[in-house]
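Q: My collaborator sent me two sequences in one message, no labels, and asked for predicted structures for both. Can we handle them in order? The first one she listed is below.
A: Yes, handling them in the order given. First sequence, followed by its structure tokens:
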Amino acid sequence: MSIAHEQAALSLSEISEAERRTRQALDYGRASDFLILWGIVTGAAFALVQFLPGRANEIWLGADAVGIAASVAIARWPGRRQLCARRDPRLLAAFAVLFCYGIAWSFLFVGVDPRKMAVFWATLMMSGYVMAGLWRGYVLGLCGLAISALAFAGYCLAGAWFPLWMAATYGGGLIAGGLWLRHVGAR
């Protein structure tokens, strides 16, 4: 029994599509843990800044340290090591570059309104998610665009409640995006 050329091409195309969807689901599953983690960390930090504005620098240094340590722990978690090892190093490098540029610009922005700095950092990090969405799937890009829009809206509309707005929209948006990624990846 022989297979027609068209049937073989169709079968290979279906196999290729299944492989692409599987790779995307794995990518979404890996990314979801990090989005949820950073949603919790940034949401808690913004909430603390609302009530302890004079301690904002210490709060953010502590939050970043906890977030980075927890990110490393997630990446090294047994059973995930191999998945993370196969990760495209360009994606991690892109976020590292964004973070370094953010630090450099933050030194130039010393004395800038803290609300502007918060929107700067939120949109800088979310631009990374938009770019990751170009490589890894539209959900990451949509998450980045939605959270960026909410950060700008909060800057214009939230008034004295801006840190809580950011806790809910930035932190909550990252958590919701992580849960959405899990849902989409599980299909």
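Q: And the one she listed second?
A: Here it is, processed independently of the first:
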Amino acid sequence: MKNAHERFGSLEFTKRVKETTTRIRVYMDRLIAEPPREERGTAAGHFFSVFGSDAEVAALWAAVIEGAFFQARIPGRPPIAISLGPEAQSFRGSVTIQGRNRPIRHLVALSAELLKTRPGADREGKRTILYDEDPAFVLYRLSRRFGLPVVPEWSTWFRRELERRRAIEPLLGLGCSPVLVKGSKERFLGWIGKALKHRTIFMPEVNGPVSWNLPQVFPQKSTDTSKP
């Protein structure tokens, strides 16, 4: 954890009411955003995690609900303006730190589009925002969202297909390596069907549980048992 503060970014929110200006700036340890299309344009934000005081977190929580714009700073990059858009959701909590009398307040905010990537949600969608670019994680999350019949051994092949078809793009990230995957359930099923027909991939010889070895940033989801 040495020099951990150097890996933090910051999130700033400014609100002007008549002659009063309120400016709040907090530490940020996670961010997912799409790169702005223009040099000084606004980026579509999908996720951020910040820490602050009671008043700071309460103000940011209200700003998320209002669809406000924020100024995000990532180490090594120029600041960008981001917005989570309408129907974003946020969750507040507390982090207790040894030696401090009061806990630090924590806020996690997610865009409506990111919320649709949860298992079984919006199965007609054609865009999936993912927290990590690991091939196994990408295939696992898509299989959970769309109900795809897959096995971990197909992860490398599937990642190559995404890249070959230009269906995966890197996103702006802090504390993570997010990607945007483009494609519907029908499209991915078509890839799987053709690959099986041409024997590019193979079905397991034995029918049984499937174990996924996912990145350690998701220890609670390190394994999943299901049938292909």
